[in-house]
Design brief:
Blueprint: E1 23-28, E2 42-47, E3 54-56, E4 58-61, E5 64-67, E6 71-74, E7 88-99, E8 102-111, E9 140-151, E10 155-158, E11 161-163, E12 168-169, E13 172-173, E14 181-188, E15 193-194, E16 216-217, E17 226-227, H1 229-243
């Protein structure tokens, strides 16, 4: 599965998926729909296909109407895709056209976890091989500030992706609708970093929505930290063993 190109800088890559055009960038705030959730700035590439063309709110491909701010599948990995992960995923930010045969969209790419490179840095946990982290759910994508201009004929349908905000409700982490794709984490192309996620338990782990892994919660109203059963058992046994060792030996190494 080929990753997206040119993520080591905030400028538009010279080798693009659909069009090969020179570009320049102008820094703006994130789109209103995600401005509160995305903590990085977005640099809009101003591409030749977009320059001087009229802006549109919607367009039609094979009888399906697409609008700005919708999320779409994009062909590129394969022309004969069947499964969702056979396609790239992007959010449509702006549409411009010079005529009905030349319609282009400014899009913000979203990543399947497997598309993340090994150089993408996680706050507390990094897989040496890159790609999916152990806390990523099966229906999870990662939003990014990596923008491109693409020909709308590369679109392969619309996809609903909702934002999932982790909250502890009734002594448990809220769960996303696993029948829908969702995103909760962002990837900043300029820093090559993933955004931080809440940490839980003694192990400082992250929440995987596919797993029922945090079975206990601290009764202290000021704490309410969630814990794994196995981590609590291991911590208790470790403390019990240490209490039975003379203090002068605690932390001592064998000579």
């Amino acid at each position: 599965m080929a990753p997206k190109h040119g993520r080591n800088s905030s400028s538009t890559p010279s080798t693009k998926r659909v069009k090969k055009e020179s570009s320049r960038s102008s820094s703006v705030t994130p789109p209103p729909a995600v401005q509160d959730a995305v903590a990085f700035s977005i640099k809009y590439p101003i591409m030749n296909p977009m320059d001087g063309n009229e802006e549109y709110n919607n367009f039609i491909i094979q009888s399906e109407t697409y609008k700005s701010n919708e999320t779409v599948y994009v062909k590129g990995k394969t022309e004969a895709g069947i499964e969702p992960k056979d396609f790239w995923v992007a959010r449509v930010l702006q549409v411009r056209a010079s005529n009905p045969q030349h319609v282009y969209a400014l899009v913000a790419w979203m990543y399947w976890p497997e598309e993340l490179e090994a150089t993408a840095k996680a706050a507390d946990e990094v897989s040496p091989a890159g790609g999916r982290r152990k806390y990523h759910g099966s229906a999870e994508l990662i939003a990014s500030n990596y923008l491109d201009v693409v020909d709308v004929t590369s679109f392969a349908g619309k996809v609903e992706i909702v934002h999932f905000s982790e909250e502890v409700v009734d002594d448990a982490v809220s769960e996303p609708n696993l029948k829908k794709f969702y995103w909760r984490q962002t990837f900043c192309r300029g820093t090559n970093k993933l955004s931080d996620l809440p940490v839980y338990c003694i192990c400082n782990g992250h929440y995987n929505p596919d797993l029922l892994e945090y079975e206990h919660v601290c009764d202290n109203e000021a704490c309410k930290t969630l814990y794994h059963s196995e981590c609590l058992v291991e911590d208790t046994l470790t403390k019990k063993v240490l209490r039975g060792i003379p203090s002068k030996w605690n932390g001592a190494s064998n000579q």
